[in-house]
Write a structure and sequence with these properties.
- Keywords: Membrane, Transmembrane, Transmembrane helix.
- The structure is a single chain.
- The chain has one domain.
- The C terminus is likely disordered.
- The chain is built from 10 helices and 5 strands.
- It has 227 residues and is mainly α.
- It is globular and about 60 Å long.
- It has a 3-stranded antiparallel sheet with strand order 3-2-5. A two-stranded antiparallel sheet has the order 1-4.
- It is 59% helix and 11% strand.
């Protein structure tokens, strides 16, 4: 019962792909909102830049949590009336799919490899992984309207989830990022964050936009939500 180099490379490779897919590079005027057990939290990224943008890795240990990437000052909303209750209800099966994929790849797979389980066990695990991915895509296709996904966004979602199991861990996040909040960002922050949190993030954003010089100016995003 031990890992050899090939086993370790497989697990580390899956982890690296998952973290790569989870990471985002934010423009100076962007934030990431994540809903947790105690409500919403906001991140403006790290204090350093990569390619003139700000890296953020949002809670990789809980990929099933809703997460949105938005411009700090965005005021435009979707033309169609949004239905948050329907969206979060439709999102729930994708959250379960994300949780299952996380368990398959980072609990079951290491255990199977470490215990030197029969090849049949590894095959069953592979079937479980791809069955979960397939079910997530099939569900997203059937619930596209409730999830607020365009045909293009759905195609991107399906490609990512089916082509790469570590990317499929982020199924719920991908749906959230593709849809966006579909509401005025400042109003959302006022409703869901404590005043001190809003003040802190506002200070960081304004410093980047007005005090960051050339890098901040170059990092400002184009109008519209960022998928």
């Amino acid at each position: 019962m031990t890992f050899d180099a090939a086993d370790a490379a497989l697990v580390i490779g899956a982890l690296a792909l998952y973290l790569y897919d989870s990471a985002m590079l934010l423009y100076a005027d962007e934030i990431v909102l994540t809903r947790g057990r105690r409500g919403w939290c906001v991140s403006s990224g790290s204090g350093y830049t990569l390619d003139r943008r700000f890296p953020v890795l949002g809670q990789p240990w809980a990929p099933w949590r809703p997460q949105f990437r938005e411009r700090w000052d965005r005021t435009a909303v979707a033309e169609a009336p949004r239905d948050d209750a329907a969206f979060y209800s439709a999102l729930r099966p994708l959250q379960w799919a994300s949780a299952l994929q996380f368990v398959w790849l980072f609990a079951a797979l290491p255990a199977v490899l470490f215990l030197r389980a029969p090849i049949e066990t590894l095959l069953v695990l592979a079937i479980a992984v791809y069955a979960t991915s397939g079910a997530a895509v099939a569900f997203a296709v059937g619930q596209r309207d409730r999830l607020g996904l365009t045909k293009r966004a759905l195609l991107t979602f399906a490609t990512d989830v089916l082509a790469c199991p570590p990317f499929a861990i982020n199924a719920a996040r991908k749906a959230c990022l593709a849809r966006g909040l579909q509401t005025e960002v400042q109003a959302f922050l006022a409703s869901h964050l404590r005043p001190e949190e809003r003040v802190q993030v506002a200070r960081v954003i304004r410093t980047r936009l007005h005090g960051g010089g050339e890098a901040a100016a170059a990092s400002q995003s184009e109008p519209g939500p960022q998928p």
